Amino acid sequence: MTTLIINGKQIAEQLRADLAGAARSLKDSTGVVPHLAAVLVGDDPASAVYVRNKQIACHKAGFKSTLHRFPATTSQAELLELVHSLNAAADVHGILVQLPLPKGIDATTVLDTVDPAKDVDGFHPENVGLMQQGRPRFLPCTPAGVMHMLRVSGITTSGKHAVVIGRSDIVGKPMAALLAQKGADATVTLCHSRTPDIAVFSRQADILVAAVGIPLYVKAHMVKPGAVIIDVGINRLGDRLVGDVDYAQVAPVVGAISPVPGGVGPMTIAKLLKNTLQAARATQPIETLNIGPLAETHRGD
Ligand code: NAP
Questions:
Q1: 133 carries an active-site annotation
Q2: pLDDT by residue (tens digit) across 116-165?
Q3: Residue whose CA is closest, atom 2 of ligand 1?
């Protein structure tokens, strides 16, 4: 059996090219350039790389991006003041607060302060609620990226048993919600650190999504032969980046698998751009918009 390698890098490149075209058309019809404001607090090197990659992706797609960088000693009050000013800035369409925030700053308070109409990460409780009800404004970028990868790879979710390992607010929980949503129609099992014997569940999965944060956690004996494996994990192991799935062991026995790197990671960034474009479009009267091909894809994919 040949294993389909789900090439997230290539799928994301196509999506980013579509977004660049849609951004040009928005600029031509309204003069508006989608603008993402990134907020980076402290000196975590991984966070700095993530923000830099997001900025590069913005520039390549013809978006504007600005970086608001603060030392780790910044107070919560100062950060909230910045968020309020970005909320009020008419030319800022998306606000990204890079996590984690330094100790002493309550991330929930900061994220809840972001204007839901500019919450392009999809973390605000209002946007989480809208997503849960199946009428999303912004979908969280990583789970939306996974749904997009599945769709363009021709992998149907309807009637399948999907098992998600990990229940974080940014990956596992929304991933399970999107897979179970009407239209996606998977039957979903959500596993976490208190699930006894995860292999019992993971071996039943037609589609297995690993978002655990433990390098090479999913082994060959934990998957059903022929299953679809989506590896969300990004872990540093020595000088290598590896996922939550032991790719070398698992790839030969499954039907499809997303690699790390080059799988879910690039999709996450592409979906952040998509949300930013959508936020920019939403500021314009509908009749001024020359709606391009992205207009109908504002769903779980
Ligand atoms: P997280 O907040 O640390 O959540 C990890 C989840 O895994 C938790 O729900 C935890 O359960 C569960 N877990 C931990 N140990 C487990 C075990 N032994 N067995 C079963 N479940 C276990 O992590 P996250 O933010 O969701 O990220 C997960 C991974 O995805 C990380 O490697 C992260 O770097 C990566 N990531 C990648 C992208 C991307 O764009 N590709 C985006 C975001 C995150 P409890 O809830 O019970 O503690």
A1: no
A2: 999 999 999 999 999 999 999 999 999 999 999 999 999 999 999 999 99
A3: 168
pLDDT in tens, 240-290: 999 999 999 999 999 999 999 999 999 999 999 999 999 999 999 887 776
**Which of 98, 171, 229 most suits a substitution to test ligand 1, by most atoms within 8 Å of the C-beta?**
171
Query: What are 42-75's pLDDT values in tens digits?
Result: 999 999 999 999 999 999 999 999 999 999 999 9
Q: Which atom of ligand 1 is nearest to the CA of 167?
A: 9
User: How confident is residue 297, by pLDDT bands cut at 50, 70 and 90?
Assistant: very low
Q: Which of 55, 98, 181, 278 is catalytic?
A: 98
- Is 10 one of the catalytic residues? no
Specify the CATH number for 141-264; select among 2.40.480.10, 3.40.440.10, 1.25.40.10, 3.40.50.720.
3.40.50.720
**pLDDT, the chain, mean:** 95
From residue 258, alpha-carbon distances to 40, 156, 165, 178, 277 in Å are 29, 15, 15, 18, 26
Measured CA to CA, the distance from residue 184 to residue 202 in angstroms comes to: 19
Report phi then psi at 274, rounded to 5: -60, -45
- Of the candidates 142, 174, 129, 161, the one whose C-alpha atom is nearest the C-alpha of residue 244 is 142
30-117 shares its CATH topology with 141-264: yes
Ligand 1 centroid–CA 298 distance in Å is 26
Beta bridge partner(s), residue 208? 163, 229
Give the homologous superfamily in CATH for domain 30-117. Answer: Leucine Dehydrogenase, chain A, domain 1 (3.40.50.10860)
Strand pairing report for 228-231 and 256-257:
parallel
Q: Is 121 a catalytic residue?
A: yes
Query: Per-domain residue ranges for the chain?
Result: 30-117, 141-264
